[in-house]
Structure formats: C-alpha cells, structure tokens
Amino acid sequence: DTAVSQTPKYLVTQMGNDKSIKCEQNLGHDTMYWYKQDSKKFLKIMFSYNNKELIINETVPNRFSPKSPDKAHLNLHINSLELGDSAVYFCASSQNTEAFFGQGTRLTVV
Amino acid sequence: GENVEQHPSTLSVQEGDSAVIKCTYSDSASNYFPWYKQELGKRPQLIIDIRSNVGEKKDQRIAVTLNKTAKHFSLHITETQPEDSAVYFCAATYSGNTPLVFGKGTRLSVIA
Fold it and tell me: What proportions of chain A, in percent to the nearest 5, are helix, strand and coil?
C-alpha cells in the first residue's frame, strides 16, 4: 500500500519534447513537494504546494509547471526538455515535519 | 533562506567501527532536523530525527546530537554493518509546511 507513488519510474525522451510526471499520496498530507536530484546526488527543492496552493517556487525555469488538481495529487509538466533536465525527480509529501518520498522518476533527455 | 552544510562527502569505515557525519545549518529558526538514508536506486527514507528542544536522541545503533547554540548536528552510527552502506542526508526546516533543506549527502561505505 504505497504512501507516495509517482509515475513513470523511467522516462527517456528527446530534447525539445514535453513530458509529465504524476504523483499521488494517500497519507492525507496537506503539503506536497517536487525535488530534483542531480548526478551528484544533491536533493534540491523545486516546488512546494500546500492544499493545492503554490507556496514555494525555487527559481525553477518556467518550462517546469506543477499542477495540483487536489491535495492528494501534484503533477509536474516540463516543456521543451533540455539535456540539463536529466535527473531523478522525487515527489514528496509531509504534514508538518517528516517528508515521505515517492520512488523517483529517472528522466533522461537525449 | 536556510543553508545546510554536510561533511564529509565520502566516508569509508571497517565493519564494526563507528561512523560520524556532521552538519551545520544557518537559520536559527530551524527546529526540525531529520536524517535520511538513500540506498542505490531507492528513495530517501527517514532513519532518525531530532527537534530543537532535545539535545540527543538514540535508536539502537543510531544516534543524533544537536547543538543549537553552534547550529550543528551530527549522526552517529555504531557497530557499522555492510548494509549501512548508502548515501546519508541531513536536513533542516522549521515546523509547519516549509520544505526540508538538505545537505549534499555523505556516501558511507562499510568494508567487510
């Protein structure tokens, strides 16, 4: 019974394409996040949503557009993919403190 | 905003020895300090956390200490085992729904 699930797990696509990653949590948490983990394993916050409202956007290019249809879902759409977007993207949720992570989506742009 | 520094970036220990990873944070308002373990190809998972009203917390072979005055906290793993090999991340935030700010990670290798 997965707490935070994201799809797909792997995504290989060409430069210039548009792609989406979906995330769902069944923990009843109010807050959801997207983190990017680069090749050096650094985990960097991209977006934070609380009850479907955008709280934090950490200087992410506007090619990245999060969407939260309800507080259990936070999707990430990426336009005009670039080589530098290759990374592992983690969705997470929390209720005040501990963050629970999804299994990650490894995005490879070729 | 918060900035978390983590050292060392890599650490190799012999099985049975202890391992210590240290972090510093910049925002004195931070009051929650978790540690996450990430195995190869897996998601980060919480192993232990500490809040600012506590100086030390222990869970079996893992302990965390916090010095609020100096703004640093440490992870201690005793009697290390090969399955402790992973990347460990410290993080800091203040309570509420602000995101965790992570250190850059420590790759721990336990040599059998």
Answer: 5, 60, 40
Of B49, B96, B101, the CB nearest to A98: B49
Angle at CA of residue B58, ends B82 and B83, nearest 5°: 10
| Tens-place pLDDT, residues A74-103 | 999 999 999 999 999 999 999 878 899 999
**What residues of chain B lie within 8 A of the CB of A51, using their CB?**
none
- pLDDT 10s digits, A14-43: 999 999 999 999 999 999 999 999 998 999
Using a CB–CB cutoff of 8 Å, tell me whether B9 touches chain A: no
Q: Which residue of A has its CA nearest to B35?
A: A98
Residue in the block written with tokens 């893992």 = B62
Which of A41, A54, A58, A100 is the mutation pick for testing B, counting most B CBs within 10 A?
A: A41
